[in-house]
Amino acid sequence: MGYFDGLTAAAFKQDSQGRDLFFIWGKFGKGRVVPTEADGAAVRNYLKNYYICLIVGIVPMIMFAGKALEPRWFLAIGIFMVLALAALVPLFLRTRQWAMADERLTYREAMAASASAHGAVSLWLLVAVSALLVAMGLFVLLGTDATLIGLLCVLFFGACLGVFVWMLFVRRRG
Q: Under a CB-based contact definition with an 8 Å cutoff, are residues 105 and 37 in contact?
């Protein structure tokens, strides 16, 4: 499976009765029982396309944003966040009438589902890219005047690196 399939898998789990459950807000919300396999496939497809659009939308947002911490930067990030949440409204409306699930989704379950849905090659590639971006962030932090950018890169991609390494261990155990 691909990267976006792995992201999508984190929003689903099976309950003790073998039913598929969907958690639109992840561990922060209640789950819904997926009524049919076709509904589950449609929701997975919507989420996958949603994640693709988010990734593609980040590049123009960064180009429009300009220098960090300027008013235009906050405006661009705010608009992007509002659009990202608004894009979930059709999915929310579609799944709102589904029966509520008795079980909750834990962070560990979501990450384990995502880890098993990612391919091993995909996870190793994500580890390598994250490590490279941490190294580049360290270079920016220590070798240039852009210390805030370097620090943010090291922190963000270091966290990503930790998550991807943990997912490799979960995938290996599972």
A: no
